[in-house]
Amino acid sequence: MDRDDLYAQLREFLAGLAAESGREFPDRLDPDDNLFDLGLVTSFSVIRMILFVEDVTGCPIDLADHEPQAFYTLAGIHTLVASQRQEESA
Amino acid sequence: MTTTVEHRFDEAAITRLRQEFSQVSTSQLADASGDLVTALRLPLRSRNGLPRVAGPAFPVTTDDDMLPCLQALAATPPGWILLLVNEQRPSEALAGDILTASALAQRLGGLVVDGAVRDLDDLAELPIPVFSTEVTLVSARTTRERAPHVPQTVRTGGVEVRPGDWLVGDADGFVVVPEDKVTAVLSAGRLLRAREDRLKQSIRDGAGTLAELTGLADFLAGTGELRFEV
């Protein structure tokens, strides 16, 4: 899965979360937008986000060696997944 | 997707995860992980002053009988938590200073007893977490009924605990984390912790009170949302 595919799947997932909670989903969601500050991911949905990313990428999300902020944005998530894939293959 | 702890019996890997869990409270894990983690509805208390425990569970049930406890102690791998569940109430003491000294020598991750322990003065000198629901000086003395196998899947505190599920306990309580979700749950807890730390820092820095930061007045006036997410 390339970066744009990941972004597209994440946007679709986040739109679903927003619909569930009655929030408006922004017309435009940039790779560096903070998903938490926008209210798209909350303390109660963060685990669903993690499991979704694990599911679509096949890559376990382990923040032990990363700053939590790595998971705040689409770009950060892509970088995190790429980094963990690299660690797995090393 | 399910991801198991990479090396189930790797003591170093368990130790690393335990250290990471020590940075996140059970309350945060429960908030961040929803239905994935389950709170143990048991009045478990630290009996030797060590306030936290985390590790894969090695469970066994007993009926005031020491034999299953000794069988399980003998088989519990380093880093794992020996979980003793007594079906008798009130419980006789299933563990004291001698059993705990052996658990320490075997490098177990902790001892959790749904039932009673004893010898608290001596336990205080042993650097291994010991939690129990009861304390009594009356020792379990029978060794009649051997466990058909160890470890066992047990039911305690309203929750089914399977061998390898992680137990995480602190002053707030205990949660059970399915073995195949440990990494995801830990990551969710770390994310929530970071957000909560930021919110607390904002309050300390004078950015606003909790009422102001959550938009309480607007919400009560019907003109805004209550922003309680962190």
From TrEMBL, chain A:
* Carrier domain: residues covered: 26-65
InterPro entries linked to this entry: ACP-like_sf, PP-bd_ACP
One Pfam annotation reads PP-binding
* SUPFAM superfamilies cross-referenced by the UniProt entry: ACP-like
The protein in question is named Carrier domain-containing protein
**Species of the source:** Kitasatospora indigofera
Source organism phylogeny: Bacteria, Bacillati, Actinomycetota, Actinomycetes, Kitasatosporales
From TrEMBL, chain B:
**Reaction(s) the record says it catalyses:** 4-hydroxy-4-methyl-2-oxoglutarate = 2 pyruvate; oxaloacetate + H(+) = pyruvate + CO2
- E.C. designation(s): 4.1.1.112, 4.1.3.17
A Pfam family matched by this chain, by name?
RraA-like
GO MF, any single term: metal ion binding
Q: Does the keyword Acyltransferase apply?
A: no
The record ties this protein, via SUPFAM superfamilies, to: RraA-like
UniProt: substrate binding residues: 96-99, 118
Q: Which cofactor does it need?
A: a divalent metal cation; Mg(2+)
Keywords from UniProt, A to Z, are: Magnesium, Metal-binding
Q: What is the top-level taxon of the source organism?
A: Bacteria
Specify which residues bind Mg(2+) according to the UniProt entry for this protein.
Answer: 119
Check the record and name the InterPro entries matching this protein.
RraA/RraA-like (IPR005493), RraA/RraA-like_sf (IPR036704)
Q: What does this protein do?
A: Catalyzes the aldol cleavage of 4-hydroxy-4-methyl-2-oxoglutarate (HMG) into 2 molecules of pyruvate. Also contains a secondary oxaloacetate (OAA) decarboxylase activity due to the common pyruvate enolate transition state formed following C-C bond cleavage in the retro-aldol and decarboxylation reactions.
Q: Which family does it belong to?
A: Belongs to the class II aldolase/RraA-like family.
Question: Quaternary state and partners of this protein?
Answer: Homotrimer.
Descriptive protein name: Putative 4-hydroxy-4-methyl-2-oxoglutarate aldolase
Q: What's the source species' lineage?
A: Bacteria, Bacillati, Actinomycetota, Actinomycetes, Kitasatosporales
